[in-house]
Amino acid sequence: PVTKGAVANAAQHDKVPRPVGFVPLPPPCPGKIRHFDI
Amino acid sequence: VPAAPPAPSGCDDPESVAAAEVAVNYINDHNHHGYKFALNRVKDIHVVPQGPNNDLIFFELDLLETRCPILSPTPLANCTVRSFAEHAVEGDCDVKMQRVDGTLSVLASKCHSHADSREDIRKVCPECPLLASLNNTEVLEAVSAALNYYNSKTTDSYLRLLEIGRAKIQYHPVHSVVAEFAVGATNCSAEEAKANAGACQLLPQDQSNFGFCTAVMLKRPSKDLQVDCQLYGHQVRAPHIPLLSRPGVTYVHPGQDTS
Question: How far is residue B120's CA from residue B130's CA, in Å, rounded to a whole number?
């Protein structure tokens, strides 16, 4: 069960520095541009 | 029986990219005009399960024009994408594919191509040449003169124009026209064609009977005409008439739809 405390803890957790090498997942779409955008 | 790989979900998933590349090859194989296109971006993908190991995949793809004519035997992987400064042409494609037990097939594709706007190029490169209309009088004059000149110099087959691929006109500092065009070999020698070129028939539509030429026509301050043709059935360029070291400028390209 999610409690007020748990939400507060989760918010606090977000402020923890991410480990070195952490790469956030890219959004599923659109994909990367291989050459250039026009 | 090994299980089929999971259905693609993200635009950059390896399965999605592999399927998109199959789609791009299909599009190039079914297009008979202009140049080969390369994948620039998977814009969107939707997978609709149809049953066990059976999915429909709907793609939106952004492609970019390469320098390889569509009739060129050069594999797409070796084709250079035209730079932004060359006045890039983009292809927007909707593709419907089916994947059954991991085997992909294209059911339908619909593409629209368009050149980048002149304003976009002018913003970042005021001096860059722009595409010229393919039915521009100066372009037609340059192509006709170049092909006549080539045919007057060659001892091989008389070449006939198939289509103009790109053209550009530069006005400053030198007034020049640069055009690229596809040609087909005929059953006449260039010498035989002098008597009656109209009687010369294109040879069977085998890739070895096609070629591609680039022409540079200088108009002012001095007049000059240079043409370079590569015939796909030949290992060497013949006759070789060198191009200017830095060809001229300007383009305009009509949109092209395929389905």
Answer: 11
